Amino acid sequence: MTDMAYEERNTWINAAATLVSYVVYLGIILTRAQSVPLVDIDYVAPLLWTLGSSIVASIVGCIVGACIWGRGCGKKDVRDREIELLGGYVGQSFMCMGGSAALILAILKADYFWIANAIYLGCVLSTVLGSITRIVAYRRGLGFC
Amino acid sequence: MKPTRVTNGIRSLRFAHGEMTQAELADRIGVTRQTVIAIEQSRYSPSLEMAFRIARVFGVPLDDVFEYSEDEEATA
Which member of A68, A126, B48, B61 lies 3.0 to 4.6 Å from A94 by CB, making a disulfide possible if both were Cys? Predict the structure, then answer.
């Protein structure tokens, strides 16, 4: 962590916060699913809380990271921007998949539960896979793909 | 793994110029130290503009800093 670029460190924090919050959400939903059918579960509160928590955890994590390993804080160069762009391309494709899945589910008149969860999963995959792409690009270079 | 065919002699040039640190070079060309490390390890090909800035820091022509390998295996 000490020798990591500021942006790389933030990418790790963001990916971890998103992944952990989604696992917590899944845990809550699957626990509730033991007594109630999936579509009848009150998923809105856990979804909003875990989504909000992941955003807050990312921000707090980045601030704490900057305080502990402050070197290079806020410094972003051309390589960081190129890597960010590459991660953005990968992440965006999963966001589109989540949106398309939600659209199909809406056309099929699926329950709101499935539509909301398709979008949420799309967001999580977008963040996590976009972050993994960025981390690999930082570690192995932009020419890895 | 070296994903680029562009190799360079930045490390030796730094030592030849009063053991210049990576942080010092990074400051002079306006990038982070991690980017200098990535360039030195051939994990990142700098833009033409950045390459000229690096050459100017050492006061040498571009060819003395960077080399383009024709050998396909050099990138493996």
Answer: A126
- Cβ separation of B34 and A4 shorter than 8 Å? yes
pTM here is: 0.83
Which pair of structure tokens corresponds to residue A27?
Answer: 């845990």
Tokens in use for B68?
Answer: 């383009």
Alpha-carbon distance of A82 to A134, in angstroms, equals: 10
- The dihedrals phi and psi of B41, each to the nearest 5 degrees, come to -90, 10
Nearest neighbour of B32 by CB, restricted to A75, A140, A143: A75
For chain A, 145 residues long, the average pLDDT of each consecutive 10-residue run is: 79 95 96 90 94 94 84 78 94 94 96 95 96 93 70
Torsional sign, CA A3, A138, B2, B66? negative
Quick check: B37 and A5 in contact, CB under 8 A?
Answer: no
Q: Which chain B positions have a beta carbon within 8 Å of A74's beta carbon? A: none
